[in-house]
């Protein structure tokens, strides 16, 4: 089942324009000036959808839609921003619960119609949606529950982040189409065969990456003694200019390498400053107890980044029975987006869209969180997927003993 | 007491290896790339080289190849974060005698050394 | 619903100027005393252009040197077409070509893995200078190169261009 890059781009554009249409409707109704920051398509484990919403409370509206495309969409506002929005629509209404709720339902209804209509127009068929259902939930629960026995564990999710100009409040539009109806629609809209991606193998690749992340997390645990859990692993697809936005504007410490082979590209391991200090000190034989990031910390991070990088890419090489070389790590300490920016620019010299592979790991013991982001060259990734033997997908490890007999 | 040369571009890793090894071994040198590894090997003729793979200027596999071609009796243990089967095969081809993947624990390092240079 | 009658149009507070965010491969123009901002410049360059006589100012965040090198994509992604689009939009907004000045920041060489040839950062910088020169817009301030990222703010009414790096204090061009 092949899908070309162009149609992935078109679908991303549809979601983006839908989100813009929805945002504009909201602007007309409330006078609130907002812009759609990022829209991306992400392939991830259904159970991990909405992980990034953890720890915050949301209100929103949920719809199901059917027709040529089936699934659910959700519009989720931070609790605070929902209050502001209803207040803008009908002053005084945020104190009246029923009224506030009805306001959110109505605005959601109008916004989501705008969101869905573009899709229907594109495919030249109708997509019906159900009446809005008001929801008030914490974190990822704002999204519909995963089906108990879905055929596909991994799903494509379209996610738009909308940012208010004057305030640091965001809201989100999620679209969760049924895997089958979406991929059928994608396959039908293939424009060219030249740059086709075998979409099923993308799932296998994602599974390999999940085990690579686990290996990287095990490596962290061995070097630091800190029990480390790998969290979400996902592959996203976005226009190249949206790639740096995948990382926050905060300052990060970490390593960047260029990797070559099949696939090739760039890989970064990033820690927030506190995590970097914590993890570096856990690696050091002597107590440092420093609040500042020193050169010793950076040396430890350099080696940790190196080992995590290997843990992450070795699985690809072993499954594909090839080798993936990487440069010695370069240590970075800078604003997150500025770190990603030159890498996106290098990749952007040859392609308009990019796949971004993201993983996260963390621990409950101390404040520690790490992110791994890989930015593969599109052609090489396609070649890797072509070469990928799905049967070998679990052969991510190498047997040293066997080779050094 | 066997003498050892450590080749690794990471200062952190050189320190860690030195701490593990210095009790029972004489460290004759610590270098940061493959070119220096070959040079110091020729000067010092250590019993064992602990060789990283991914290093700037010249990688550890090339350096191992040169050391082993000039002196087939040399003992080289790859000590690397790379856990790729194809790389391990390349290391074998270059003549490596052992392969330790990072992160390692002291016992596995001691065991690998014992296999290659029995005391 | 928002009621569009007189009672709703409270005058906005004058104390804080409007902030206009400019994303990667985007440009924005304002005729208000607003602050145009863009963040996370690595090898990218932020080009601020303002009219020294009237309040018309614009900021573009470009990623790559030339649109001729790659097909497709939006104009604001490239130094040559991005600057052109910005200058045109400013002229449309009432800026006079003769009164335009530019200040530029970014173009860092950080994380340049190319072993031969010049970095994207320096190629971006070269193209930005060339293009501004072609349009006779003088560069009156710059903070380019190095190996660190930057975020920038342009005050539309003063032409002050504030450059901030992760590990240093901000400078005003």
Automatic annotation (TrEMBL), chain A:
Pfam families: CheC. Residues 99-133, 297-332 form the CheC-like protein domain. It comes from the Archaea. This is CheA histidine kinase. The keyword Transferase applies. The keyword Disulfide bond does not apply. GO terms for molecular function: hydrolase activity; kinase activity. SUPFAM superfamilies: CheC-like.
From TrEMBL, chain B:
GO terms for biological process: phosphorelay signal transduction system. Residues 3-117 form the Response regulatory domain. SMART domains: REC. Pfam families: Response_reg. Keywords: Phosphoprotein. InterPro entries: CheY-like_superfamily, CheY_signal_transducer, Sig_transdc_resp-reg_receiver, ST_Response_Regulator. Gene3D superfamilies: 3.40.50.2300. The modification 4-aspartylphosphate is found at residue 52. It comes from the Archaea. NCBIfam families: CheY_Halo. This is Regulator. It comes from Haloarcula rubripromontorii.
UniProtKB/TrEMBL annotation, chain C:
GO terms for biological process: chemotaxis. The keyword Metal-binding does not apply. It comes from the Archaea. InterPro entries: CheD-like_sf (IPR038592), Chemorcpt_Glu_NH3ase_CheD (IPR005659), Cytotoxic_necrot_fac-like_cat (IPR011324). SUPFAM superfamilies: CNF1/YfiH-like putative cysteine hydrolases. One of its GO terms (molecular function) is protein-glutamine glutaminase activity. Its EC number is 3.5.1.44. Keywords: Chemotaxis, Hydrolase. It catalyses: L-glutaminyl-[protein] + H2O = L-glutamyl-[protein] + NH4(+). PANTHER family: CHEMORECEPTOR GLUTAMINE DEAMIDASE CHED-RELATED. HAMAP family: CheD. Probably deamidates glutamine residues to glutamate on methyl-accepting chemotaxis receptors (MCPs), playing an important role in chemotaxis. Belongs to the CheD family. This is Probable chemoreceptor glutamine deamidase CheD. It comes from Haloarcula japonica (strain ATCC 49778 / DSM 6131 / JCM 7785 / NBRC 101032 / NCIMB 13157 / TR-1).
